[in-house]
Amino acid sequence: MLSFRDLVSGFRKLNLDPQQPVMVHASFSSFGEDVRGGAETLLGALLATSNALIAPTFTYKTMVIPSDGPPDNGITYGSGKESNLMAEFYRSTMPADRLMGIFAETLRLHPNAERSSHPILSFSAINLDDALQAQTLQDPLAPIRVLAQKQAWIMLIGVDHTVNTAIHFAEKLAGRKQFLRWALTAQGVVECPGFPGCSNGFQDAEEWLSGITQSVKIGEALIEVLPLQPMLNLLTEKIKEDPLALLCNSSNCERCSAVWSGVTKMVENS
């Protein structure tokens, strides 16, 4: 069984400056054995090695699909008749989607944590109020910009780059197409622009990022950390060089297909 001390010892091997924030993506089950105290122990160990933490606490249950909308939006309008009936009103106390993992929800529930108010793409954080406050409906990825300015790190605990939310910000910086989505709120259905694309192809970035990645194993979990700003710089240039980089290979992916279509039209018109 892994203890608090085991986790702290492992994280300290990464030699991170505790003054630099960390965005955490974690699969708690990846440790492969019980952690004494559960996800709360993991959070406590991270707080023992970093003064500021943040994690995505997205809430996809609020999303609805209208019957029509703007073209080339990576969505099939009118396909949400059944799912729309199951949509939930966003509230600040709504649990993070299960896809975010138990760690994200544990962070959200911490007494010192705050949460941004985006009805789909909220973040929860400790000691990062300015990053949370930077987020707006029009700019949902703004917290990542603030984190980059603070020389933050990305930490992947037993997960790969397909859950690395910050790569979406590199896509935006490179000029890649963003999307419009809709969320159910107490004020009614609201438009949420700047919704990112598909992340299923992001693991292709692993080779490019190997030179700036540090890693350590704790139990069976591989912990990887990357400096956020250098990661953004590198991936932004890669996507500018190849506008199709990091897209997934599924012919059924509506968002990646929309990006492909847009790139094809640009080439044909050039």
UniProtKB/TrEMBL annotation:
<dbReference type="InterPro" id="IPR028345">
    <property type="entry name" value="Antibiotic_NAT-like"/>
</dbReference>
<keyword id="KW-0808">Transferase</keyword>
<keyword id="KW-0046">Antibiotic resistance</keyword>
<keyword id="KW-0012">Acyltransferase</keyword>
<dbReference type="InterPro" id="IPR003679">
    <property type="entry name" value="Amioglycoside_AcTrfase"/>
</dbReference>
<dbReference type="GO" id="GO:0046353">
    <property type="term" value="F:aminoglycoside 3-N-acetyltransferase activity"/>
</dbReference>
<comment type="similarity">
    <text>Belongs to the antibiotic N-acetyltransferase family.</text>
</comment>
<protein>
    <recommendedName>
        <fullName>Aminoglycoside N(3)-acetyltransferase</fullName>
        <ecNumber>2.3.1.-</ecNumber>
    </recommendedName>
</protein>
<dbReference type="GO" id="GO:0046677">
    <property type="term" value="P:response to antibiotic"/>
</dbReference>
<dbReference type="Pfam" id="PF02522">
    <property type="entry name" value="Antibiotic_NAT"/>
</dbReference>
